[in-house]
Design a protein that fits this description.
Order of helices and strands: EEEHEEEEHEHEHHEEEHEHEHEHEEEEEH
CATH architecture of the largest domain: 3-Layer(aba) Sandwich
Distance between the termini: 59 Å
CATH superfamily of the largest domain: Class I glutamine amidotransferase (GATase) domain
Shape: globular
Oligomer: single chain
CATH topology of the largest domain: Rossmann fold
Radius of gyration: 20 Å
Strand order of the largest sheet: 11-10-13-12-14-15-20-19-18-16-17
Helix content: 10-25%
Number of strands: 20
Length: 371
């Protein structure tokens, strides 16, 4: 089934759908990972985005329930060079096509993904539209231009949990107190801005009892739960477009140890009084080099973000820059000099990706132990 991909600057790409008919819009981005497509597809940080994989063959190892990072596919559409319809892997329980169809997500193959990626690297991330129903290029370009994009848009409320839940036996358990979570020495309240399940798995493995709460939960509600620490998850979109959340985070300063990842890092930057900005084409993949400024070590990291904290807007008397991206020197980590708070822009939960940064979860445990 023929499909067209139109970008807001008038560029057109052609492919064919392997999931049936449909039409959708979003910001078109690329991911450089060679594997891990199921984790990418179910990462809530990709809400509002059409993802292009730079690796040419996708679908060869199928999908399985264990590799879910949320309860559904989150991307708006999935663009690849070549789809493998016959997976071969002992863990596979289904095909990528069926997996996408279940959530009515368009999968398009036959795209010149190298050309599309090079175009985004030059022009920057662009709004786009994918359609099998409207094959008029001019019409699609107009639709792409009028689509909402990511800047100023609150996508967190579209992906956060509706009700609190605990994490037990590798799955969510509904409930608004720690009795629904696996028992553990350290009680952690996790703000769900679009979190990935592996963050909960890693905390649980480190003797934490984790209670997940919606993004709208107030600081007073958090304190009433009397946690040992507060975790700020990843999530989609523009951190400056999420009203109210920054005030709740700021109200927790000095009261409990705080660990933030990705969007959590950006929201902390705003809570510190800084600003954020949109990257030209973002960082997405499992091979991003990051330097730990406190040790001089280089980590290979998994990343997925289109916005970043502006380090020049932070007060150096209060905030220490701890990590930088070696590709563009953008902020990859911060810590508060007076309160037990630290954060990173990348994804240390290694789903998908390398294991270099798992020490950050241990650092959070140490911080709660010493409080």
């Amino acid at each position: 089934m023929k499909a067209l991909i139109a970008l807001e600057d008038g560029t057109i790409f052609e492919g064919k759908s392997f999931t049936g008919p449909g039409e959708t819009s979003g910001e078109i981005v690329f991911n450089t990972g060679m594997s891990g497509y199921q984790e990418v597809l179910t990462d809530p940080s990709y809400k509002g985005q059409i993802v292009t994989m730079t690796y040419p063959l996708i679908g060869n190892y199928g999908v399985n329930p264990e590799d879910m990072e949320s309860d559904r596919v989150q991307v708006e559409a999935f663009l690849i060079k070549e789809y493998n319809a016959i997976p071969s892997n002992f863990r596979s329980t289904g095909t990528l096509a069926d997996f996408l169809k279940k959530d009515n997500i368009l999968g398009i193959e036959g795209i010149d993904t190298r050309a599309l990626t090079r175009h985004i690297r030059t022009a920057g991330a662009l709004k786009g539209i994918v359609s099998t129903e409207d094959l008029d290029p001019d019409s699609l370009v107009r639709k792409a231009k009028s689509s909402p994009g990511l800047v100023g848009r609150d996508l967190v409320r579209e992906v956060t949990c509706a009700e609190p839940y605990g994490w037990r036996e590798n799955k969510p358990v509904p409930g608004s107190n720690f009795s629904t979570a696996a028992p553990g020495k350290y009680k952690v309240v996790a703000y769900d801005f679009g979190l990935k399940y592996n963050q909960l798995r890693l905390l649980t493995e480190r003797n934490c009892s984790v209670q997940v709460v919606p993004c709208t939960t107030s600081a007073d509600e958090i304190m009433a739960m009397n946690p040992d620490g507060v975790f700020l998850s990843n999530g989609p979109g523009d951190p400056a477009g999420i009203p109210g959340i920054v005030d709740n985070i700021r109200a927790l300063f000095g009261k409990k140890p705080i660990f933030g990842i990705c969007l959590g890092n950006q929201l902390l930057g705003l809570a510190y009084g800084g600003t954020t900005y949109k990257l030209k084409f973002g960082h997405r993949g499992a091979n991003q080099p990051v330097k730990d400024l406190t040790t001089g070590k280089i980590e290979i990291t998994s990343q997925n973000h289109g916005f970043c904290v502006d380090s020049t807007t932070l007060n150096p008397d209060d905030i220490e820059l701890t990590h930088i991206n070696l590709n563009d020197n953008s902020v990859e980590g911060m810590r508060h000099r007076k309160h037990p708070i630290f954060s990173v822009q990348y994804h240390p939960e290694n789903a998908p990706g390398p294991h270099d940064s798992l020490y950050l979860f241990d650092r959070f445990i140490d911080m709660m132990r010493q409080k």
